[in-house]
Amino acid sequence: MKKISFKLAFYFLLVTVLIESILFISLYTTIVHSRVQEELDALLARGNSHRDVLQKHFDDTTISHVALMESEAETKVIITDANRNILAQSKNINKEMKIHLHTDLSAVPSTGMVLDDHWRSSDYICSISPIISNEEVQGYVYMFLETESIKALVEKITFKFTITALLTVCVSICTAFFFSRIITKPLVRMKKATEKLSNGDFTVVLQTTSNDELGELAASIQKLANDLHYMRQERSEFLASVAHELRTPLTFVKGYADIAKRSHISDDERTEYLSIIKEEVEHLTRLIQDLFTLAQMEQHTLTIEKEHVHLYDYLEKITAKLKPTLASKNMHIHIHCSSLLTASLDKVRFEQVLLNLLLNAYKYSNTDASISIILTQHHGQTVWRIEDQGVGIPEQDLPHLYDKFYRVDKSRTRSTGGTGLGLSIVKEIVELHGGTISIESQLHVGTTVTIALPTN
């Protein structure tokens, strides 16, 4: 994570410095240009001010007065006639300054102009203001300012900008690394969490207080850890249940097979023991078949092939198969279904659903009880209700009925205990049909299973 922290800080700093550089250069150029332009405008304005006075009184006294005023100022002045002969000048006028007297003045406007603004390469900047009287040029006022003052001003601005830029870069560096650590810190925690998950440790706890993408990622990893933890527990319980379910009938088969091999037992006893062995083998066969069905569901290879079914005839055939079994308890199944009702479903798979539910109702009902199958259709759905008069299911067990190998009857007797997979398979088949299943029960009153399937 140090690499990503460094990368984030580096890229953040690079972008920040790039933006700051553009802004600093733009601001620096604007300020310098503005300050230099102010000096140029001030020099021209000063020359125009002298020109305005001289236009009113263009005589030796006024000329000398103007030159005297500039003799103690930072600026210098040269006053010439129309032919650019010097009439007066302030002190410290050198030859370089007098060179400007020979500049072409054909383009000089009446408002004056800057003759030389090359402050970086020249020693002076210069402006000219024509003295016009009666619409004729009487002379010119040349103003000079040493560029050293401008250069000093620019150096001062440059120094301040350099200090500010360095401080800004330092702050940007600190900020970049600070925020990169803030961003990468949860990533480091998530990396450690995923390493724990890869090592089989699912006891991962991640804080998910933030509402951004990192918070969503942390929540996803936490959910993954919880799901894996649950799946590992479920797998352990599943394997333990499978081992138990296989061990019990195999123990019976082995035990009774050893007894049946004894030579001194009677034929009736041997027949009884072989019948028990046959029952346990059938139990194993059902368990293996249920496990195979569950495996198909887990791999999404269990397919549903729907066809058009007349529901009353379909139920008559299924209940007919159960009549011998129900007769042992003198139980009856009552079908409440219109002979005109039809629906689209997988006949084989849904028969598995109905047989499972009806056999459950049989196992947990008393003698002379009855089972009702009620079918209705409305709003594009076929609703199946299977009601029994059995012992009922405790309320605390209802949420767990679809768990694999879960039994309300914890005694696991061979007479009442199935494989514990039936309702899990029932739920999967119903959902593959696009339907829903719900179970309501009341102790010592009975249980009602409601299945809602799309009609088509």
UniProtKB/TrEMBL annotation:
Transmembrane residue ranges: 9-31, 161-183
Keywords: ATP-binding, Cell membrane, Kinase, Membrane, Nucleotide-binding, Phosphoprotein, Transferase, Transmembrane, Transmembrane helix, Two-component regulatory system
Domain spans labelled Histidine kinase: 241-456
Topology of the protein relative to the lipid bilayer: Multi-pass membrane protein
Catalytic activity line of the entry: ATP + protein L-histidine = ADP + protein N-phospho-L-histidine
All copies of domain HAMP, residue ranges: 181-233
Matching CDD domains: HAMP (cd06225), HATPase (cd00075), HisKA (cd00082)
Gene Ontology CC entries for this record: plasma membrane
Listed Pfam families: HAMP, HATPase_c, HisKA
Compartments where located: Cell membrane
KW Methyltransferase (keyword) present: no
InterPro entries to which the protein is assigned, alphabetical: HAMP_dom, HATPase_C_sf, HATPase_dom, His_kinase_dom, HisK_dim/P_dom, HisK_dim/P_sf, HssS/ArlS-like, Sig_transdc_His_kin-like_C
GO molecular function: ATP binding; phosphorelay sensor kinase activity
PANTHER family: SENSOR HISTIDINE KINASE CPXA
Name used for this protein in its record: histidine kinase
Lineage of producing organism: Bacteria, Bacillati, Bacillota, Bacilli, Bacillales
